Amino acid sequence: MLRYFSAAEVNAGLDYPRLIDALSEAFRRGGEAMPVRQTYNVGTIANPGHLLTMPAWERGKALGVKLVSVFPENGASGLPTVSSLYMLFDGATGRPSAMIDGEALTNRRTAAASALASRHLSRPDSRTLLLIGTGRLAPHLAAAHCAVRPIERVLVWGRKAQRAQTLAGTLARQGLEATPVASLLEALSSADIVSCATTSRVPLISGQHLRPGTHVDLVGAFTPEMRETDDDAVCRCRVFVDTYAGALKEAGDLLQPMAAGRWDATKICADLHQLSSGADPGRLSQHETTLFKSVGTAIEDLAAASLLAGDCSSEAPD
């Protein structure tokens, strides 16, 4: 029977400790290389729009696809710019088993992937988290990072001070010691983990202001034209990615310093498969600066959807 999962059910059903472990296991297994997401122009001149498809499968077990529409002009009408839906199918029969709110699933699995990387790359004693960006993903990133590190303080910076204050208040009500900050440079000087989720096209994080031992988590920039760090930041850090294929196609934070001749792809230390399988040790010392760049991969959606639907199936009456 086809089951629909609302956003509230996704958030309630995918707690971060179990979801992070599920992603770790999915990346550890590796398996077939998944297609990089495909983007199609489906809009008009007056109302441009794109359709994105992200399929993934584990033969004999599960297969699924996320459908995402992006219509930038929707904001003028008070409508969401991005809408998405996830369809999960039984891998043995091909029958549809679940339809899942795509935004909630994406937020949870994206934050969990960042926390999985942090488990390998941030210092175990990391206690101060800096959030750059105040969008819908930000509170998920805070919760996920807190699930893997003993975070005692969350600093919040955004271009609009009021939104940073609102987010800090939301996090405080969730039990976190959260404070809005006016100076990004001062916040960088005290952060152990920097998690950045924006749509910026200009650097927000300067390499010269990163202190030794910091872990940088770059989530937001997901096209070659976007970036959240300058060239110096990438050159100073040991760089890790979610997948090589996705990062080298879409990550502006890496592609732009490559185009400038400042950095090259051979300097990527490892991806999440290598970290999760133990093929790469991750952080090597307390003093090195690490950087994780994610652009998202469909295997994360499949692992999260399978965990959610599997829990529901196991709870169903005989």
Q: How can the largest sheet be summarized?
A: 8 strands, parallel
Question: Would you give the CATH topology of the largest domain?
Answer: Rossmann fold
Briefly note the structural class of the backbone: alpha/beta
Order of strands in the sheet with most strands = 9-8-7-10-11-14-12-13
Mean pLDDT: 94
Portion of residues in beta strands equals: 15-25%
Total count of strands: 14
Secondary-structure element order, N to C = EHHEEEEEHEHEHEHEEHEHHEHEH
Which descriptors would you attach to this protein?
318 residues, alpha/beta, ornithine cyclodeaminase, domain 1, 2 domains, eight-stranded parallel beta sheet, 11 helices
Topology:
Layout: E1 3-5, H1 7-13, H2 16-29, E2 38-41, E3 50-58, E4 62-70, E5 82-90, E6 96-101, H3 102-121, E7 128-132, H4 138-148, E8 153-157, H5 161-173, E9 178-180, H6 184-188, E10 193-196, E11 215-218, H7 231-236, E12 238-241, H8 244-250, H9 252-259, E13 268-271, H10 272-277, E14 290-293, H11 298-315
